[in-house]
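[audit] Reproducing an earlier prediction to check determinism. Same input, same settings, fresh worker. If the tokens differ from the archived copy the diff job will pick it up downstream; this log only records the rerun itself.
[audit] input (258 residues):
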Amino acid sequence: MDISWQHLLIVFFGSALAGSINTLAGNGSAITLTILTELLGLPGNLANGTNRVGIFTQSAAGSYAFFRGGKLDLLRSRWPILFTIIGAIGGVAVAVNVSNEAFRSVFRFLMILMLIVILVKPKRWLRESDLSKQTNPWIAVPLYLALGFYGGFIQMGMGVFFLAVMVLYARYSLVDANAVKVFVVGAYTFLVILIFQWQGLIDWKVGLLMAVGQTIGGFFTAHYAATYPQANVWAHRLLVAVVLLAIVKLFDLHLLLF
């Protein structure tokens, strides 16, 4: 695929922004998938597979930055990581064979629900991690499996839903939850890439180009979040902004405004 230099700039800076958003909030795939389908003209399933390359590299870089900053405890978070990865394997098995367009139509209403959850009692999102209370495995395991299935299937918005479960149910701080999210997304995305590649659904030239931008955005954002004292506050603000913008785009409200 021949890409003009103007498109190269859009791909790079758009990917860097997506990597930053994915690391601290989620739903950055709304940017990268739009670039892949609307700007570069890739078919849906090929765009879905190609998008995973940058997600993996940004997650690996972000995980390293969080771990170095003392925000990623793999042993403490082993169960969310394990069951989310298992769910993701099932999700990607469906994704390579089934169109996700119908599911996308439901996604916009999930975003409205998520906005309500984020805005009601916002202090819940700003507390520090409290892991003294054990989660109920009969609730936690299905939640993590469902999160993984969704992430393996479509990815878009998975970070937002994962944060909601980890902060409001598992009682992680927003930054600690982001650290786990980045690691678990990177782990299952590696498996997802293998499956998509096996199906011939990755454009590596485009995917690697986007990966450069996403990795830069993901690493520096994770480094900032791990070291800045007010990172929880800014992560919450970004999360609200991301969900609001997603709702505007999904319901075409920008067309009414302009």
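[audit] rerun output stored. Observation attached for the diff report: Residues 126 and 230 are 9 Å apart (CA to CA).
[audit] end
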